[in-house]
Amino acid sequence: MVEKEVIARRLVLLEEYLSDLDEIREKTNWDHFSQDKLTRRFVERTLHIAIEACLDIANHIISYEGYREPKSNKDTFEILEEQHIIDKNLAEKLKKMAQFRNVIVHDYVTIQEQIVYAVLVNHVQDIADFGKIVTRKYL
């Protein structure tokens, strides 16, 4: 059985990251984002740690429920789909987020600001949806 306190702490952090991203999304547009390196770096890093929080939560659930060991970050969300914790649609979106996280961490030199902006504008809700599901199922 999962440790609710561990999940709750990660969800509090995730909510803070999402709030920060929502604030930036409301205040910025493409022109500002593309010209302001501090905003870009803030968004990149905040997306990175938000995705890490999702991975931490997912790995905690997998470990404590005794599910198979993930082969990769993407596989972490595949396991949650296999166990009917998240649906296929959300699993696919979160697997793409895991790939995006890998680009931020490992290929940061080649990261395209258009992709970061698109994730900010169009996909932060996927992270929020994951948090809602985990809250509903485990807290």
TrEMBL record:
One of its GO terms (cellular component) is toxin-antitoxin complex. The keyword Magnesium does not apply. Pfam families: HepT-like. One of its GO terms (molecular function) is RNA nuclease activity. Keywords: Hydrolase, Nuclease, Toxin-antitoxin system. InterPro entries: HepT-like, HepT-like_sf, Type_VII_TA_RNase. It comes from the Bacteria. Belongs to the HepT RNase toxin family. This is DUF86 domain-containing protein. It comes from Effusibacillus lacus.
